[in-house]
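Help! Submission page says 'invalid entity' but I think these are all valid:
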Amino acid sequence: MTTAMSLFFVFTADEEDTVIDSDGRQERAKEKERKKERDRKRRRNVARRASSARKEGKELEDRPGREERRGRKKRDKEGKGKGGEDERQEEVKNDTVAKTQKNFSNENTRKLEQKEIEVVGEEDGDTEEKRKNGRPEKGGKKEDNGRGETVEKKQKKKRVETSAEHESSEEEEDEEEKVGEEKPEVLSPEELEKLKEEVDERKKLISTLRGKPWPMRKKLLTLRESHEFVEKYEGALGKGKSRKLYAYKVMMLKKWMKFQRDFENFKTACVPWEMKIKEIESHFGSSVASYFIFLRWMYGINMILFGLTFGLVMVPEALMGRPYGSMPRKTVPRADEANAMDFAVLWDFGGYAQYSVLFYGYYNSQRAIGWLKFRMPLSYFLVGVGTVAYSYMVVIRTMARNANEDGGGDNNSFNFSWKMFTSWDYLIGNPETADNKFASITTSFKEAILEEQESRKDDNIHLTRFLRVLANFLVLCCLAGSGYLIYFVVRRSQKFALEGLESHSWWERNEVNMVMSLLGMFCPMLFDVISALENYHPRIALQWQLGRIFALFLGNLYTFIIALMDEINLKREEEEVLKLNMTIWEASLYNGTMGANSTAPPITVHPADIPRGPCWETMVGQEFVRLIVSDTMTTYITLLIGDFLRAVLVRFLNYCWCWDLEAGFPSYSEFDVSGNVLGLIFNQGMIWMGAFYAPCLPALNVLRLHVSMYLQCWAVMCCNVPQERVFKASGSNNFYMAMLLVILFLSTLPAIYTIVTIPPSFDCGPFSGKSRMFDVIQETLESDFPAWFGKVFSYASNPGLVLPFLLLMVLAIYYLQSTSKSYKQANLELKKKLQTQNEENKKKTKMAALKAAMDLEEAQKARSEAPRQQRKNNASQQSYTGEKNTVTGHLVSSFVFVYPPAPRGHRIPGPLPGNQWQPAPSVQRVPNSQRHRV
Amino acid sequence: MGTTASQLRKDLLSEYQVVMHVFFRAHKRFSELLSKEDRNIPTPRVPMEKVLSLPELKSNPFRKRICHVFSTSDMKDGSLTFEDFLDLLSAFSDSATLEIKSHYAFRIFDFDDDGTLDGGDLEKLVNCLTGETDDTRLTTEEMRQLISNILEESDIDKDGTVNLSEFQHVISRSPDFVRSVQI
């Protein structure tokens, strides 16, 4: 790199010269000839220095090997010399190296002189060489000078090749002498330091080897050599005891690395459904697969939520809490006992299901249960908070990671190129999908071209605008209508519930859920029709569609929640009445028994007979569970009817139908990625909302997702056809995540509202008897922690402290926001700078190319004048050619972009002791991509 | 499977693991491709036809280019040794870096192997992307327009071709390149 840089400076300096003297052609040509010679000399020097640096490394690397061998021999002779073995060895090394170097240096001075002479002779040959070099460079576009020359050239080339070896050997010796001059002593502290550096570098190379675009063989070769090198010299760095320790440490490190690698492999092997998803990916492209990956991710989150609620809430209560039938809240009331086991009731999550660990009401408010003294209410509360907190954390972390990966694909400046270079989805392995992809790429190309043409003349903007406004108006009407419908239905169902469910038909009982599911099914289709009016680009249209469906679902959900709130208030009124009745009932019971027998044992009433409150929490939980179940059922049924049945009908009726069903109207269905993703997101939102009142919800959801995975995989593979417009999903990844975040926020809002503002029922649930649910925290603080802790906490929660803290947080947010803004600004500035630099460099390159072309022409002229001289001297050109090519490669790449160039062969820069390795030209398969440029 | 895997020396295996991401599956797939008689040769080569029949490559329009790029064969017949095959898989694995991917993608797109993407390369590339059938082909006018647009965007030094650095520059801005170049 350093050589490349220095050369670059030489080059640019020349460039400026040429710019300045822009007189007649003749003069410039002369000037250039002179300059060229100068330049050539300089360049050759640079090149030689570069090669010598490399070779020096190689030579040095050989030496220690030799030394060690000798050293070992000596050691063997010495036998059991223990004490100063190390030092002695070092001395021996020094001796031997010094001797060898002396020998070499004598020889080298002679050779160097010879070489100096040759360098002078080389000058003329250079031009010829340059032309030869230029020929393949220009791709035969510019010059074609007849056949006769090529024959001549071939002959020359041969000669050049034969002489090349000679040259290189000379060079080797040359730089060996330099080494001798520079370092009379070997393995001095500095040497050791260098050795250490080298070892470190090798290690770094080993660790970054994966990221190199080299062929496998080269990678292996490099790896093996580096390993050997590291093993050989690592030991030499330490001394005596520390060496052993060092070796041990290295060994352990190796073992640890291996373990990590194995663990990584194990982890990838453990990812579930990988093969299934890969198969779908190959058939349907990455967008459909992205849905399944999202589903899997969701499944993972729900697994953890399920683990939390199951392990910390449900199991402890079931095992250690009071058994069923011991309390009113844990017993089915007498009136319902008769049909508490009926399937219809259980399906509705009434009867025995209602009075079980599945719902909030079953839990007892006893502070500590079982021999573990498990704090049940506290655990219930913390799990509720923890699920929400965990979900927030995961979603936000994933979003941040996605945003990082996106890497600022912000500007549209490479629209066409991206379409060209990145549109093919390499995951596609199915010919049919591939055909669709071809078609979609073609249309996208055509569209892009059309857009490009149309962007200049945009007519009828008013009509489009009008249509868009109209479409949005229609959609708003739809949304409002669906919201009203749901509100109406919920209200009606409340009326029915008050009258008693038994007197109504099945439809009237399940109206709410059915209406919600039906709306969720048909409204998106309506939106789809409406969006045809708008004439958007498909990607934007998809986002609008998603946004609208999102709004619809959200509206429906919130209407549902508002209706639920009404119901909660009703229940609470009922509860108040009941509380009053309760005291009357107890008094009457007391009086009645007292009157009959004064010495009777305390009255025992069966818990099923005790009157109880309506327990609004369980009601809310039940509503959510019912909603989830009906939603799941609708999804599965639409899947079976809409996809499977349709596919079967199309497939088999096609034999006896008057038009082609497969290609014509009904055809097979496509997999609706956006709709499915939205369904998943809303389902999750309901889980988050309802999980506090029904701890069974995460379990249900895990079950649902599990079944979905298999069912949908099967359905996709057997009855869907690949999408006609196969678009890539990655762009919308964070879009989905953002939706999930919004939903998460919106669904925790009502849950938190109910927890904070509504007092819990007096006779059911873990918080019964408290005025608010979060009182459980205070209770724990008072009774389970030492007094000072409670005091500290009460001080900390003092508004005088909380408010400044909040203020501080707001300030911190503001500060971070402004710094990020300024960073962004700085980024922009840098970008601009880069662009201007690019432009300048472009100009320079152009000039350089021009100049090179001129050089070439002149060189040709010169050659035709004096062909003889060149033939004489062409022997010493080969090495120069090679150097020049690689060097110019570096040059171009390093100043066209400021980006780091792709490594073209690994090269260790400085002269280092023990550099064993050099890029082997036969293996180096790096493209000659830069050759054309200069 | 155990027998074939154990044929590899253990140290060689660990070396492969350092430079490679997926190993065992790769070896399995590779030995499936080999015919019976080939297995006894020390460095067997799989002919290009067999590699092309892999389901992952079957419908890829660049499959022949991929074989040629990764082949180290002297015959230029696109046949792959095991090491070449590993190269291929690791370049297309999802943990390969952008640099590796863009490097190989460039070479895949460089149809005439001259180190730059010129008009001819781009035309071939468009034809690959739009498929073989006539109804999806672009007309010459469209093609000309498209190529000039592409060159306008990505040919920064305006020499009429896209070289590796320019290509990487364009690709590195793209949000979904790394994800799309996977098998």
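Support: the input was valid. A stray whitespace character was the problem, and the output above is from the cleaned input. The mean pLDDT of chain A is 71.
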